[in-house]
Write a structure and sequence with these properties.
It is a single chain. The protein is mainly β. The protein is 0% helix and 51% strand. It is built from no helices and eleven strands. Strand 4 and strand 5 form a beta hairpin. The radius of gyration is 14 Å and the shape is globular.
Length: 127
């Protein structure tokens, strides 16, 4: 199993920045593709970004492209989400998750493909 713990959330003014961290422990971190999801009140959980096991391939939902950057440090077994130019619509609980997609896939985009989840961290962008 993998245990995931998010940190770094908070309240930030529109246009500001935050960096989320996801610390992993347990089984080999490098065997998992990782992702960041978010869920706003009354809305379904959606993927924000995903990253391959080695970190060389990434995916972003259109709404965050050019503003958010996903990365991972396999030596520190930690994943990050750098969020710049935050908007009020980015307000949500952010979750990190770990998946083991088939070898032909670099990452997973669907929540059901992820096996392990963190507890979530609140991000609030104020207008």
């Amino acid at each position: 199993q993998v245990q995931l713990v998010e940190s770094g959330g908070g309240l930030v003014q529109a246009g500001g920045s935050l960096r989320l961290s996801c610390a992993a422990s347990g089984r080999a971190f490098t065997s998992y593709a990782m992702g960041w999801f978010r869920q706003a009140p009354g809305k379904e959980r959606e993927i924000v970004a995903a990253i391959s096991r080695t970190g060389d391939t990434t995916y972003y939902v259109n709404s965050v492209k050019g503003r958010f950057t996903i990365s991972r440090d396999n030596a520190k077994t930690t994943m990050y989400l750098q969020m710049n130019s935050l908007k009020p619509e980015d307000t949500a609980v952010y979750y990190c998750a770990a998946a083991q997609p088939p070898p032909r896939y670099s990452y997973s985009e669907e929540a059901y493909e992820y096996d392990y989840w963190g507890q979530g961290t609140q991000v609030t962008g104020s207008s």
